[in-house]
Amino acid sequence: MSIELKGISHSYDAKNYILKDFNLTIDKGEIVAIIGSSGSGKSTLLNIVGGINVPSSGEILLDGVNINNLKAKDVESFKLSKIGYIFQNYNLIPFLNVMDNILLPVNLLKKKLDSYKEEAINLLKELNLESKANANILELSGGEQQRVAIARALILNPSIILADEPTGSLDRDNTTNFMKLLKEISIKRSISVMLVTHDLKVTEYATRVIDISK
Ligand SMILES: Nc1ncnc2c1ncn2[C@@H]1O[C@H](COP(=O)(O)OP(=O)(O)O)[C@@H](O)[C@H]1O
Ligand SMILES: [Mg+2]
């Protein structure tokens, strides 16, 4: 399994605990949907898994590695190479074209771009964006932008995808299309997906649904 959360508790003010002794393991090829009322701690939990928030207590193992025990200098490259992020508002860079957005994590890791360009082209084909490699981000529809975000999340061959309300800005058809693609990809590439949603259409594609407000 690629995500193991053991006894995660979190408080932002050392008084009110948003998460209490939360345990979860996610296998490769699984899609776990986190649901719960607004303010119940869904984004906090996802950010803890992604190493953006450090929990008050508990352990996070990604591919067996405890991220909070990594040396500071290794944390960023570990996160970049293991985790792909997908956001509600796509978070693409508007002044870079599609190809350069997809290659952004490669640039951040200071890896040689050439060897990843072919992979980027393959991803564009897989995501039905073949003709858009040189397009401006702002010329794309929402559904297309979210598919570019999938390609960017996959470029470094991660074992985990984290997505906070990834379909929150998409219409119904694009939501279905996005989830079908994500499901195919997670199975084909043995990726663990943890996503936050409040859309019942999205939970239909999950292998497990966890309500954290309960
Ligand atoms: N950085 C922060 N500092 C202090 N409180 C926060 C911070 N982020 C979130 N919270 C609080 O923690 C609770 C859970 O927030 P969040 O994880 O964003 O919930 P959800 O994503 O389920 O809506 C909320 O009460 C929110 O106000
Ligand atoms: Mg949230």
Number of helices: 8
What is the terminal separation in angstroms? 25 Å
- In CATH, the topology is named Rossmann fold
Assigned CATH superfamily: P-loop containing nucleotide triphosphate hydrolases
Bound molecules: adenosine-5'-diphosphate, magnesium ion
Pattern of helices and strands: EEEHEEHEHHHHEHEHE
Number of domain units: 1
Strand count, sense and closure of the main sheet?
Answer: 5 strands, parallel
Domain ABC transporter: 3-214
Pfam families: ABC_tran (PF00005)
Coiled coil: 106-133
InterPro entries: AAA+_ATPase (IPR003593), ABC_transporter-like_ATP-bd (IPR003439), ABC_transporter-like_CS (IPR017871), ABC_transpr_LolD-like (IPR015854), MacB-like_ATP-bd (IPR017911), P-loop_NTPase (IPR027417)
What this model shows, in words?
With 214 residues, this protein is α/β, with parallel strands linked by helices. It has one domain: 3-Layer(aba) Sandwich (Rossmann fold). The chain is 36% helix and 24% strand. The strands form two sheets. The chain has a five-stranded parallel sheet with strand order 6-7-8-3-9. Strands 2-1-4-5 form a four-stranded antiparallel sheet, covered by helices on one side. α6 runs parallel beside α7. The mean pLDDT is 96. Adenosine-5'-diphosphate binds at residues 12, 18, 36, 38-44. Adenosine-5'-diphosphate is lined by residues 12, 18, 36, 38-44. Residues 106-133 form a coiled coil.
Key traits:
214 residues, alpha/beta, 8 helices, Rossmann fold, binds magnesium ion, binds adenosine-5'-diphosphate
Question: What's the structural blueprint in terms of helices and strands?
Answer:
Elements: E1 3-11, E2 17-26, E3 31-35, H1 42-49, E4 57-62, E5 65-66, H2 72-82, E6 83-87, H3 98-102, H4 104-108, H5 114-126, H6 142-154, E7 160-164, H7 172-188, E8 192-196, H8 200-203, E9 208-211
Helix pairs in contact: 6-7
The site of magnesium ion has 3 residues, from helix 1.
